[in-house]
Amino acid sequence: MLELRPNCECCDKDLPPEATDALICTFECTFCAGCVEQVLGGICPNCGGGFSARPIRPAAMLKKYPASAKRVLKAEGCGPRKAA
């Protein structure tokens, strides 16, 4: 089950469960569309993967399976992933 993280890991923008600009990678790293396009160049800085739109959980299911309240923010800052 997706966590539906509450914020962009880059700029800390709120991304509520119904946000249409929330993007996730396969590890559920969560970023806003603006940061993905303008800062990250479409590549996750954590895993190097791409992004997909985060699905919106129906309200009835959100009551039963609430979104995460734990905020994740990149302590070292946000920028394109560096090659190893």
UniProtKB/TrEMBL annotation:
Q: Which InterPro entries match?
A: DUF1272 (IPR010696)
**Superkingdom of origin:** Bacteria
Q: What is this protein called?
A: Urease-associated protein
